[in-house]
Amino acid sequence: MWGRMLRRGILFLFCLGFVASARGQGAPAGPIHLAPGAHPEAAPTPEQQQHAIRARVSEVIAPVIVRDPRTGEMILDFTQKDFHVFDNGIEQKIDHFDLGGEPLSIILVVETSSHVDPMMPAIRQAGIVFTQTVMGKTAEAAVLGYDDAVKVLEPFTMDPDEVQNTINRLHTGYSGMRLYDAMARGIEMLADRPPSRRRILMVIGEAQDSGSENKLGGVLRQAELANVTIYSVGLSTTAADLRQPPEQYEPTQIGPPGTFPVPTPDGKPPTPQMEEAVQPNMDLGALLIWLVKTGRNAVGHNALEIAAKATGGLNVSTMHDRNIQKAIDEIGGELHAEYTIGYRPPGDEPSGYHEIKVTVDQRGVDVRTRPGYYIPPPEQ
């Protein structure tokens, strides 16, 4: 019995020595305990969190199309070293470069109002062109419909058959055209997709809105900050216009109140009639910058064209139903053959509109990209 007790005592002393040695060699595994007198870091207050959340841009993605002006054909043999990108006139380091190889996340936004009822059969028939030409083999797509409300008809899927079946089942509803609300919902969904995928919003509808809570300028600002490129197939509104009573023309408010932003010919006063005559030929560049800065609307027939130009996309207008498939095919061909350039602006970039310019080391070519992005002031 005394022998067993002696052995246990020796074993106990050995364990004590081992533990002391382990503590002297380093910190034990498991949670790290605070040193005596130290205090844990306090969690930020709601006010601090609010001031910390600012609309900064961590990476800017610019889609780039380079064409031969003589033939209109895209030029696809440039490399990264041939490109130069400027942010407010300052050249940036290109961190990301690709030529049509990245997978796409696409939101297809389709007008389902009663206005497009005569064109709905042609839209359904175009579904196979969308799945084959636009989606391709690596894209995921979701489908939204809009009239008086915005509806998610198909969540994100990589199954082209599911998307085509959803397009085949499209039907018209009420007379509302909440285009801007549908675009805002699509951009919100795209903002949650992985940054490794290019974010595309494709609209098939009339270039006008009625009843939306969102405004075009706010939608464009949201798209620019989320690196979403907008493509559109503008449906002809002739059938809808014929069903509507004629309306008296009212000047479109496209600039700040009290101003006339569209220049008139020399000696011609800025009357509503003159404004109506010159607006189709107006330069959309200054208009879209004003829209993004103010977050307002531009009432008129240029909504889809402005959205495409603001994000570096393409708007294709269709005068006949049979041209819908051709327009979608054109957009699909461009999506899978465009350059994608990415850069990271400095963290202290100022608020306001940042102009983007992309050049290539070859003269006599046409380069198209997004014109810029807008960073609102911290207090907004």
Provide an overview of this structure.
With 380 residues, this protein is an alpha/beta fold. The protein has 2 domains: 67 residues, no CATH class; 219 residues, Rossmann fold (3-Layer(aba) Sandwich). 33% of the residues lie in helices and 22% in strands. The strands form 3 sheets. It has a 6-stranded mixed beta sheet with strand order 7-6-5-8-9-10, with helices on both faces. A 4-stranded antiparallel beta sheet has the order 4-11-1-13, with no helix packed on it. A 4-stranded antiparallel beta sheet has the order 3-2-12-14.
SSE diagram, text form:
Layout: H1 2-25, H2 46-52, E1 60-67, E2 83-87, E3 90-92, E4 96-99, E5 104-111, H3 120-125, H4 127-135, E6 140-146, E7 150-157, H5 160-168, H6 179-191, E8 198-205, H7 216-225, E9 228-234, H8 238-243, H9 272-278, H10 284-294, H11 303-311, E10 315-317, H12 323-335, E11 339-343, E12 352-360, E13 366-368, E14 372-375
Parallel strand pairs: 5-6, 5-8, 8-9, 9-10
Antiparallel strand pairs: 1-11, 1-13, 2-3, 2-12, 4-11, 6-7, 12-14
Helix pairs in contact: 4-5, 4-12, 6-7, 7-10, 7-11, 10-11
Q: In a nutshell, what does this entry contain?
A:
By secondary structure, this protein is α/β, with parallel strands linked by helices. The chain contains 12 helices and 14 strands. A hairpin with a 2-residue loop joins strand 2 (83-87) and strand 3 (90-92).
CATH architecture of the largest domain: 3-Layer(aba) Sandwich
Tell me the strand percentage band: 15-25%
Gyration radius from CA atoms, angstroms: 29 Å
Instruction: Supply the CATH superfamily name of the largest domain.
Output: von Willebrand factor, type A domain
Give the C-level CATH assignment of the largest domain: Alpha Beta
Number of strands: 14
SSE order, one letter for each helix or strand: HHEEEEEHHEEHHEHEHHHHEHEEEE
CATH topology descriptor of the largest domain: Rossmann fold
Classify the secondary structure makeup into a structural class: alpha/beta
Distance between the termini: 83 Å
Cα shape: globular
- Total count of helical runs of at least 4 residues: 12
